[in-house]
Specification:
The chain is α/β, with parallel strands linked by helices. It has 13 helices and 13 strands. It folds into two domains: 117 residues, Enolase-like, N-terminal domain (Enolase-like, domain 1, 2-Layer Sandwich), CATH 3.30.390.10; 235 residues, Alpha-Beta Barrel (TIM Barrel). Strands 4-5-6-7-8-9-10-11 form an eight-stranded parallel barrel, surrounded by four helices. α3 crosses α11 and α9 packs parallel to α11. The chain is globular, with a radius of gyration of 20 Å.
Length: 366
Amino acid sequence: MKIANIRTRVVTRHSDRPERNPLIAWKEKNVLLVIVETDDGSTGIGEAWCDGGDPSVTAHLIERDFMPLLIGEDPRRHARLWQKIRDTTTYSIRDGIAYSALSGIDIAIWDLVARHYRVPVGTLLGGVRDRVFAYASGGLYADGKTASDIGREMHGYVIRGFRGVKLKIGGAPFDQDIARVAAAREAIGPDVRLMVDAVYALSVAEAMRMARALERHDIHFLEAPVHPTNVEGLAQVARLSPVPLAGNEFAYGRSQFKRLFDAQAISYVHLDAIVCGGITEAVRISSMADTYGLPCSYHAASSAVCFAANLHVASAVPNCDSIEFHMIHQLLWDRLPADTFVLDPAGNIVLPAAPGLGLPEESLLH
């Protein structure tokens, strides 16, 4: 079994929904799928993060730079292939986009190999658990959307069976944001996890003020309060915050996460397999976090492929806290059988039993 081809496909969803986070209002959402094919007809599918620009840039990197490195290689030697791609960035300045491209290829290889052995990716990784605690992620901003509306939205997720919810902050005046959080807590009751995400929108001083005000609402974690490059500022907030901090889903590679760990800047590691270097690197980062005594929560705000990849990683590491179940960004979910991702009575997503990522590739690619 040798790699014969790597191709990409962009899936775009246009939207006129009014919701926005503190920084972005979406008119469209792109997903960059990566398909690895072998000489025996086997295929695997992955996803590379491509928000913030033209997805063809990442696609060209995959097909023109990285594919020639892997043609003729055995996909079962995933660590060798990961390193071949990573080594190309040593003398370049393209780390971020390269890690995204690498992520998509690596996920597709894991899917392909697990299908070859007829087991789920999580089993191939070691299979610590067969289900993962999931929280419903929503609570976006929209014109005219009130604190009461947020409360009703969060309560609706609990009615659907989720035992954790997350909403955005940092996109409204301080008092309005606190009112939104208070309404959410009142609506979901004291026994449901409540998380908030500032999407890097706050200054250090604003983040400290926000953390103090959030304490009374029993917040599981405050995610991404300050700019992702401001590790020192994040550590400053962490030292004084009464609320645990989580970050940074847009970090990539072990070195960036190690900097966060060494600075004691976070209490929860928030990472994404389609950003950080694929399943291979996500497992490594999770293992490194475990040596620091840090739990991991997995970001998923894109397609079914992104969610599945992160779910399998989460199922295979001992220090998993949770996975994000995004209520807005669900591209390609309409092409899945209804029972692909099942929520159990305790609020856990059950790992699909089908081989690979557990997704019907023929439906996703046609």
